[in-house]
């Protein structure tokens, strides 16, 4: 298999984190407005062909029974790449033996010229070892060349099938749409039990313009950041393909993803607080009456504001320092850290705003006397 050398420019990384969620959200809104049956999409089928066509994902999406043809070929390529790695290790070890044997031969020849004791016997032994090392080197090259030839042939077969599907995909898509337009697919697991009463009756808390704006902002940020999980799937998928199909592991995927997950954690703090997803020690709180719960939240909110305020101040210091020294990562990727520290500041501000919204709503509930 040929090797590939992928490099992710920094601007493309940041553009992807911004544009991909925007495109995904727009497509989701467009899908919700569609009233008819959801038929297969040709652009999505082409995307699957380009990203995971080697396992027949595009044919699985179009429910074509010939998808399985790609699977054994792909598995054979993966196994072949394993043999290639083993063959390279054999060649490397054999090359080291050849070089060591050549050194011994040169030393033995020098000893013969100096009429050293047993020099002739040592020379014969060194030459025999050199001949054996050369034989191992030749055998290792044979193993490596055979593995590369078989794997390259299988890869060309997969490439040929994918090239054919580039042309056939519109016909496969048209046939699938024709079938599903006649017999639309119904999800057998989707049902609504209209007779089941609601387990919990809730009372809508009083709000004002400020709290509604902050809550809506947290919802938008949470929905935006949720699309980053799809980016993570694509990135790790790319790493697996590069590592096991092309023997070319990347140098940026791991760092790009753990930085992204850190930013997700920070930016979703406000949304998590909105939906009450943060961990709380509720041994006593859960046993209180509703009014006492809200009163306890109001009284203990001082600890939240101390934490959130400290987080905002610390994040600002980190951002200022990273900007001043032009901090970058220590890896080969060398991404700038100031945008990440800026996201840390933004996430802490969103968390502080959502906590303020929660505090205002709790006060409004207590003043209204509805609990």
Automatic annotation (TrEMBL):
Keyword set, alphabetical order: Cell inner membrane, Cell membrane, Coiled coil, Membrane, Transmembrane, Transmembrane helix, Transport
Offer one Pfam family short name for this entry: DctQ
Q: Domain (Tripartite ATP-independent periplasmic transporters DctQ component): give its ranges.
A: 238-363
**Coiled-coil positions:** 109-136
Q: Where in the cell is it found?
A: Cell inner membrane
Q: Mainly resides where? A: membrane
* TM segment ranges: 12-29, 41-61, 153-172, 220-237, 257-274, 294-318, 338-360
**Span of the secretion signal?**
none
Membrane topology reported for the UniProt record: Multi-pass membrane protein
Keyword set includes Transmembrane helix: yes
Keyword Zinc applies? no
Briefly state the protein's biological role: Part of the tripartite ATP-independent periplasmic (TRAP) transport system.
Its assembly, as annotated, is: The complex comprises the extracytoplasmic solute receptor protein and the two transmembrane proteins.
The UniProt similarity line reads: Belongs to the TRAP transporter small permease family.
Report the protein name in the record: TRAP transporter small permease protein
User: Can you name the source organism?
Assistant: Azospirillum oleiclasticum
